[in-house]
Amino acid sequence: MAQLWGGRFTKETDQLVYDFNASITYDQKFYRQDIRGSIAHVTMLAKQGILTEAERDEIIRGLQGILEDVQSGALKITEEYEDIHSFVEANLIERIGDTGKKLHTGRSRNDQVALDMKLYTRDEIQELDRRLKDLLEVLLRIMKEEIHTYMPGFTHLQKAQPVTVSHHFGAYFEMFKRDRGRLADIKKRMNTCPLGAGALAGTTYPLDREYTAGLLEFDSATLNSMDSVSDRDYLIELLSALSTVMMHLSRFCEEIILWNSNEYQFVEIDDAYSTGSSIMPQKKNPDIAELVRGKTGRVYGALVTLLTTMKGIPLAYNKDMQEDKELTFDAIDTVKGCLTLFTGMIDTMEFKRENMEASAKNGFTNATDAADYLVNHGVPFRDAHGIVGQLVLRCIEKGISLDDLSLEEYKSISPVFEEDIYEAISMKTCVEKRMTLGAPGAAVMEQVIAREEAYLQEEA
Q1: Domains of the chain by range and CATH?
Q2: Which of 156, 243, 250, 261 is catalytic?
Q3: Is 156 tagged catalytic?
Q4: CB 89 within 8 A of CB 50
Q5: d(Cα 364, Cα 265) in Å, to the nearest integer?
Q6: Segment 206-264, tens digit of pLDDT
Q7: pTM for the whole thing?
């Protein structure tokens, strides 16, 4: 058992206790961050005269050698070590001797793991942001291409008013844009360096914590050593933000699953993102969309778990906090995978434009526009509402749309109707005349698309 403590103990730790206590199986994920933090730490120690420059250089060479060997596969991270810190330190001592024992001067595993987790989280936020941006690029392409593709808009899952695919996808563009903003906020708020906080009360060594923070690209050092080692707020914020990302993905997936069904036939999911049935040869299942929807609960679970873990913990560090890693790693990996697969799925998805427009017509999504036509010809809105309701009822009885009613049938209910009613309730008119900012009209959508394009270029 390779561990960094033992002088106080007269008996070996029980193997089951050791295994239960160990974190090497998952905290090995941040070996790069652990080594980076150690290099910054010894650089600062030498600057402060706590280590000699020769000792600093020897330790850094040893750490860089460990990093290279782990990356190449020449050195394996095994479970004989309690955690990633003991793995790095034990291998360093084995390679350079007693000088390696000076690596841990002026720090504790408590501030060390706090640093590693922040560095890892910061790196992963950057990767998550990149994948969100990839998704936004695909959404923007679809918004440009489908600006005249008419479809029903829904409320209560009932057809309401006509919109376009461009407008519908634009709603999700806004959601994922806000998700990027949340990640950026978290990254900014968490960007303080805990290294040098020690176990909880700092250290008597004359550390230059601001110098270390600068080496590691933090904005500053943390201002309270107890908070430094026990802060998991940024992880709770991250898991909350990731839960929101998954909620947005899940909502989108639910719609795609519906649109892909035989009843809707709005889209065709590419074969690469579908699966078949082992018994029913006609099936083409939207498994990726369903799995993304299902994995949302997994990410929610991570958030609730960490909130529950943290709610009763007194200051400062407690071993309960070790539970933050495995579930956070899993949530991050889950969201990254879902974003990549979802982006690929919608990037290759085929829109069945004629079916979408026919569905909008047959769902009486232009009924409001028929009422507006009457209002524009002097009929009070409440009367117009009732007249169009009668027209809809007649269409339902005959199994037709408002577009298919004859002018005589229109006039039999209200003599105000003239030949121009057909133009007034066409899908094109219904959509194009909605020109307020945020509406689906093509001209205003082009303005919105230009703004979204500028946003993505600014964030490059």
Answers
A1: 15-105 (1.10.275.10), 110-210+223-357 (1.20.200.10), 361-458 (1.10.40.30)
A2: 156
A3: yes
A4: no
A5: 18
A6: 999 999 999 999 999 999 999 999 999 999 999 999 999 999 999 999 999 999 999 99
A7: 0.91
